[in-house]
Structure formats: structure tokens, C-alpha cells
Amino acid sequence: MYFSRFSIFCCLFPVSLAVVDYCDENKRNSSILTPGIQFTKELSSSEYAVLSSFKSLHCCAKGYRSIEWFKDGKAYPWPGDVSSFILYPDSANQTIYSQALGSVDAGNYTCTVANDSRLVSHTASLTVFDMKKNYMDVPLPTYKLPTEHFVRLGQPARIYCEAFVGKIDLPDATNEVWWERPGVNMSTPQARRYIQHRISREEEQVVGAYLFIEKVNRADYGSYVCSISNTEDQVVRLTTELKEEDWEMGLPSNKIPWLKLQFIIITILLAATLAIVYNRYALSVLLYMKLKFCQRPVDDGKEHDLLICYSPEDADFAVGVLATTLGSRYHHTVTLCQINSTRASAELQLASTLSRHLLVVMSPSLFENQWTPVTICPLFKQLSDIHSNIICVPLQAIKMDASWKSEEGCALRQLLSRCSVITWEVNTPAQRRRFWTSLRLNLPPPLSPPSTRQREMTVTTTTKAKLSTFAKSNESLEVLV
């Protein structure tokens, strides 16, 4: 009994040792010298094994914080009917293995390694041969040898090939792997600079070889052939081309792509600059183009550019701010009319027929402090019936609550969508400029600037209109500015 346990231990110890050392040997020099997440050696894309034999799969990497394994898209751990592979913790979870393969173990195995900013993955397919004896057919390549290798002059070169050869129970059968150059004798003293390093795993069932060149010169560029055999008449040959890498080919992938980064930063800065310029000058440019190229309407039967409707409580704003500024500063013809929320007066209907636009000053006082769609909608229906060009200037934001989902709320949204809504927000110079520019864009081109005498008469008329408004708080007022 003790002898059998000792025999099992002796058989498994070399296998376990190989599992532990596989990812620690033959690492790429670039992976040792450069930081960041990356694979540290060549990884096979195809794996082969015989039923009931030992098998291990590897994912050699560095710079990662987590590593995950998947079989046909299913994450580890796997139930027995999916796979018999388990993690080997001593290899930092870079290796999974099975002591005795089953037919369910065949499939695609993917390892995913990730850190805080990057994720890389690798997939290898596993084929399981259902044979009573060992595999004895032609060697099967496991690592996909690239057709081209690019190396700069004076830099080291590293080329690798590998294949599954199985076991052939013949006295003269040996597994061999070697590199050669067509037309070059690799055994001459001049060829000693080519160093070949043979490796094996899975108890010599998988063999491979590295070809190292310490410093590449121009004579080294050309074709290289890797030959792998398990008998004299079963040989597989893999070919690759060693080519010179230009210095302009770009930075390695593990370095920061400065050119792309500069392009992205410049693009972001340009986009931000354009957004700022557009936000600051777009409306002003549109207004300039309108004043420059559009003509003021004539002979249209209208006497005023704008009819301002307001409640008595908003007289200061309507007369002292809107009418005065539009008339004195921007030279528009303006008339005013007091309204209430119940119905549109006959005087308002008459004034609207003589005005090109109708502006309504909206505030809670106009609707008896009931600032809801139920109270606002009836007035807007009346105004939309008597005029088609309505400008709405809310003095206070309308709270969007459940009442806007009612029938009146839906109707009011539809009415407001046909109006030009310009909110009175003048806390900053930019907001004041935006308000007046937006308002002027909705009006026709103004009259030519008046003379000094006409300007004095306009200011006097506006002042009288303001005083008359307070004297007649319950009557309609019409003032030509």
C-alpha cells in the first residue's frame, strides 16, 4: 500500500513541478522590462490530448489584478458535466489542469486578465482524442507561428514554434524539433550566433523550440523554417519571415500613443472652443444677418411691430422695460394693452389686427396667482385665435408637475410649441444679452434710427404712458412708442 502511494507521488511530482515552472520560464525580455498588463510568453491557440491523460492549460501574464477562466463562455468553476479542469493556485491561477481528461473537456478555453484600466484575453481550443493507445499520427501545431516577425537592426530576435507529437511506442521513434534557414548551413561557426533552445511539456507529448538572435544584422533577414517530427516520415514544417522594422512603424502597444493622444486633446479643445463661440456669438450673428439682409415689411396693413399684453401688476416691466427698451434703443414700434385671464377684450382684438406680433407677459399675477395649466390654457387659446405670431415671456418658471399630464396640460404644451417662448432671465450680462437678442430675432427689422428730436419725443411719450398706466389700473391702455 505504501509502495503504491509512493509510486503515485513519484509520477505526479514531475507533472506538478512542470505546472509550477511553466509560466516562470522563457519569459519575453520585453515583458520583464516593460510595465503594464501583458502576456509574458507565447500562448498556444490549439491544444491536443488523449482521453484519460493529464493535461494543463496556461495563461501566463503580468500586471493584472484579476484573472478569470471560461469554457465555451461559462465561467469557472465548472460542474463535472462541463469540464474536469481545476485551478492550480500555486501558479497565481494562471494554470488549470485535469488529472484524467474526459470527452466533456473538449472545447474552447478563454482566460481573461484585467487591472483597473485594461482587460486582455486569450482563447485556446482543446481537442481530446478517444484512443486506446497513444497518439501516433502527424504532429499537430499548437502555437500559431506568425508569417512575419519584425525586428529592428541591432535588436534581439525571438522566434518560437511548437506542436503536439504524442507518444509513439517504437524503439527508433524520437521527437525532434529544430530551426533552419533555407540555403544557410546552421552548423558552421558563423552560425553559432543562432541559438536554439528546445522545450517540452506534457511528458514530451508537446515539444517546441526557440530561435534566439542576440543582435540582428541585415544578413539575418529572410525565411526561417521550424521542423517538428515524431518519426522519420512524419514531419511538419512551419515557415516565418524575419523582416526589418522601420522606426516610423509606431510605438509599441505597451507605450503611450502620444500622437493619438495629442490628436484627441486637440480635437476636444477645438470642439470646446467652437461650443463656447457658438454659445456666445451664434444668436448675435443671426441677428446681424437679419438686420443686414432682411427688409422691413411695408404695406401689410400693420401699424406696430409688437403688441405687449400684460396684467396691471406687471406694468412696470411691460412699460418701463420692454416697451422702453424696444422703442428707444432698438427702434421698434410698440403698443400696449392690459389684459386679464378671463377673456380677450374687443380692444385687444382690434389692437392685435394692427400688430405684426403679440407678446404676452406671463406671471402668476395674470392668473390670480394660480400658476397651473388649468388657468393658463384658456387665455392662450383665446390669444392663439386672434393672432398667429405670439411671443411668450414668462417672468417665473412654470412648475412641471402632475397637472401637465392632464388634458389642459397637453393642450397648453401644444399651444406653447407654436409660440416663441423667451424666459426673462437677466441675472448675468450673458443672460441679458441672450434675452434681448432672442426677442429681436422674433421681430421684423426695426425702423431706421430716429433723429435726436424724435428720440426725445419717444422717451416723453413712454414716460407719459407709464404714468397713465398707474392712473388707469383697470382700463386698457394703448401707447405708441
| Average of per-residue pLDDT values | 83
Shape: elongated
Q: Helix tally?
A: 9
Q: Would you identify the CATH architecture of the largest domain?
A: 3-Layer(aba) Sandwich
Whole-number count of domains:
3
Strand content: 25-35%
Multimeric state:
single chain
**Category by helix and strand content:** alpha/beta
Low-confidence stretches: 1-20, 249-254, 452-481
By CATH, the topology of the largest domain is Rossmann fold
CATH class of the largest domain: Alpha Beta
Radius of gyration: 43 Å
* Main β-sheet description: 5 strands, mixed
- CATH superfamily annotation of the largest domain: Toll/interleukin-1 receptor homology (TIR) domain
Helix amount: 25-40%
Q: Give a count of the beta strands, DSSP E runs of length 2 or more.
A: 23
List the helices and strands and how they pair.
Blueprint: H1 2-21, H2 29-33, E1 38-39, E2 46-50, E3 55-58, E4 61-62, E5 66-71, E6 74-75, E7 86-87, E8 95-98, E9 107-114, E10 119-129, E11 140-141, E12 148-151, E13 157-164, E14 176-180, E15 194-201, E16 206-213, E17 222-231, E18 234-244, H3 258-293, E19 304-310, H4 315-329, E20 334-338, H5 346-353, E21 355-362, H6 373-386, E22 390-394, H7 407-417, E23 420-421, H8 429-441, H9 452-471
Parallel strand pairs: 2-10, 12-18, 19-20, 19-21, 21-22, 22-23
Antiparallel strand pairs: 1-4, 3-8, 5-6, 5-9, 7-8, 9-10, 11-13, 13-16, 14-17, 15-16, 17-18
Helix pairs in contact: 3-8, 4-9, 6-7
Characterize the structure shown:
This protein has 481 residues and is an alpha/beta fold. It has 3 domains: 20-133, Immunoglobulin-like; 135-247, Immunoglobulins (Immunoglobulin-like); 275-284 and 302-442, Toll/interleukin-1 receptor homology (TIR) domain (Rossmann fold), CATH 3.40.50.10140. Helix content is 30%, strand content 27%. The protein contains 9 helices and 23 strands. The strands form 6 sheets. A 5-stranded mixed beta sheet has the order 2-10-9-5-6, with no helix packed on it. Strands 20-19-21-22-23 form a 5-stranded parallel beta sheet, with helices on both faces. The longest helix has 36 residues, at 258-293. The N and C termini lie far apart (117 Å). Mean pLDDT is 83; it is low at 1-20, 249-254 and 452-481. Residues 35-127, 141-237 form the Ig-like domain. Counteracts the antiviral effects of host IFN-alpha/beta and key IFN-inducible proteins involved in viral RNA degradation suxh as host OAS1. Acts as a soluble IFN-alpha receptor and thus inhibits the interaction between host IFN-alpha and its receptor. This is Soluble interferon alpha/beta receptor OPG204. InterPro entries: Ig-like_dom (IPR007110), Ig-like_dom_sf (IPR036179), Ig-like_fold (IPR013783), Ig_I-set (IPR013098), Ig_sub (IPR003599), IL-1_rcpt_fam (IPR015621), Toll_tir_struct_dom_sf (IPR035897).
